Structure formats: C-alpha cells, structure tokens
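[audit] Reproducing an earlier prediction to check determinism. Same input, same settings, fresh worker. If the tokens differ from the archived copy the diff job will pick it up downstream; this log only records the rerun itself.
[audit] input (47 residues):
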Amino acid sequence: MHHEETKESVPLVLPPRTAFLAGIAAGVLILCSIGFFVLLAIVLRGN
C-alpha cells in the first residue's frame, strides 16, 4: 500500500502575488502577536 505521489498532491502552489500578500499578512500577524505579549508583560508587571 505505497502512496504514489502525483502532481495534484503538491501541498500548496500559489501565484507569486498571492504568496507575497500572504507573507505580508503572516508577518503583520506575527508582529501583532509579539507586541501583544510584550504589552501584556508590561501591564502585568505594573510599569
């Protein structure tokens, strides 16, 4: 029962513009998440 790889089994192929926009969106979300935890630490510390 060996699974044959086919061209349809490629995980995700995006057009360049879509990949670029997805990368920018992911970067913004990561920066927002980091900022949230930094601000949370500041507020909980009482500064």
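[audit] rerun output stored. Observation attached for the diff report: Residues 3 and 9 are 10 Å apart (CA to CA).
[audit] end
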